[in-house]
Amino acid sequence: MAERLLVEAVNDALHVEMERDPSILVMGEDVGKLGGVFRATAGLQERFGSERCVDTPLAEAGILGTAVGLCMAGWRPVVEMQYDAFSYPALDQLINHVGRYRWRTRGAMDFPLTIRMPYGGGVRAPELHDDSPETYYVHTPGVKVAIPSTPADAKGLLAAAIRDPDPVVVLEPKLHYRTAKEEVPDGEHVVPLGEARIARAGTDVSLVAYGAMTHVALRAADALAEEASCEVLDLRSLKPLDEGGLLASVAKTGRVVVVQEAPRVCGFAAEIAAVLAEKAIFDLRGPVLRVTGYDVPYPYWQIEDAYMPSVERVVDAARRVLAA
Amino acid sequence: MLPAEGDLRRVIGDGDAIPDGEVVGLTPDDHLALYRGMVLLRTYDERSVVYHRQGRIGTYAIFWNHEAMQAGSVFALDGGDWIFPAYRESAIGLLRGMPVSTVLSWWRGHPAGWWNPTEFNVASICVPIATQIPHAVGFAWGSKLKGEDAVALTLFGDGATSEGAFHEAATFAGVMKAPVVLFCNNNQWAISTPLSQQTAAPTLADKAIGYGIPGVRVDGGDVLAVYEAVRDAVLRARAGDGPTFIEALSYRAAPHATADDPSIYIDSERVEEERENECVGRFERYLRRIGVLDDELVGSVKADALDRMREGIAAAEAEPPADPALIFEHAYADPPPSLVADRDEFARIHGG
Description:
Chain A is an alpha/beta fold. Chain A is built from eleven helices and 14 strands. In chain A, helix 1 (6-20) packs parallel to helix 7 (151-163), helix 3 (60-72) packs parallel to helix 4 and helix 8 packs across helix 11. In chain A, 60% of the residues are buried.
């Protein structure tokens, strides 16, 4: 075990996986010589050469489109989208091909590609460096989505994504790239997709979150410690979703607040609320509340904190559901 | 880098003022194989329009007068080379031994039409315009990285060259020196939009220069000129010299698809002129002039193609009804539990 920052854990996963499987190829803008704008891919080109850690043209649809072809030639591409919102030009390839090609071949060909990208706000960045685009990806059939919140999970979920036979999008909370640090297992470390993590056990209310919002939920649980026992459930992967883990937590607490950084309408919190309405309605002792970003473009960074779901908003929602 | 070619490469003459050329290395058997391929595609296309009118297949994208571009380019490949078609090339797999019934099943919306690409080295039919081009580039680049010598051929229309996917794929092809042939069948129409409204470039081949790729222009109705141009591009690719962009100039002498009404936008006299000079007839006349073809052989080649179509539609119509539970298959190698639950619920309510 070694203490690693979240971004170092990502880097470690890439080194370990590329060492293990020579068909893995990392590609993206500035991933090679520079090692990525966040240094997530640092050292890969030196270790594995410029053919397995490829600096590509600045063309996201071209990156993802050629990655589909690389799969057909027997490669296992790990694609970096430099920032969340930079991935939108690649949605054409994602929706029309990445999520459909296996189906189109009636299962004859696998497309085991991984798309990883830093996501989310709070980093005082220019426009389009702060988005939380997970809904677009989760909504796409044929594509899986994982979002770690801790360094160990960043390594383990990325390894699981790379090994998965299906396309997986991994969103990495850039706010915590260099703020989250913990012991990370050395060598091969895989966290299976579809297993939520109880980040903090509790009995009165479940705060359901993923990625950067897990940390907000944990701080809210601390703030509420005197008045309620909060359970914080870190979903870790949105598809597959650990429904069993979610329902078990709600069976225990009967109260739920879902926290999501993305805008509200049809966001993943709505999916959680719908699953609970269908499968846990008789366990619920109050309404399922959502604390989310607002339905606005991600704001100017001087006032971005007003957009981000705050500890205060989560506490407020938890108190409302506790009072119900 | 030389400027793109302006003049169209031609081999087949007009039997009058323009003399016939020849492609060195092609035997009479090669000529006949090319001709058989073109006739099979033509027969497929004409019968498909009929089948559509009879309600036996769904909406169909017609490729009449594109046969020279399809057969000529595929004939220049080795069996290990891959083809990445658009929907205009839906039947191109027939040139690789794909059953007629498979392609007809695709147009019938039956799962039997969704083939295994590795069986024929023909990628799936790509419907969204130009988006198969980066797949071909990625495949070619990936093959080269693996030390294999497979070349990829991708076909697309003039409208596709306006799409971002074309631009990004051509950019990658140039930078990665991918062994790929970017083959544009420029039939001068994208449904109702003429080439003049598609681009201000004097030729589409000119676009290649911006990517650092040679741009070649060829008469798309001349199967031998197409073959020769693609053969040269494949040799270049296999030698490690990277991609080639080929603009094959043609003219869409049939509706875009069975649902289209070109009388609203097209000059019917110009269409008539093209139909008189269509590519299968041009090659047939050439082969008669050089003594490879006679009435008897023409008759038997066409009869063979018709037989294959008859057998193909019968086989497609004999496919057992698709199992509705198939909708839950194949999207994932390892499906999420929620989808498995949906499948179970479907079975409970609808049986199966």
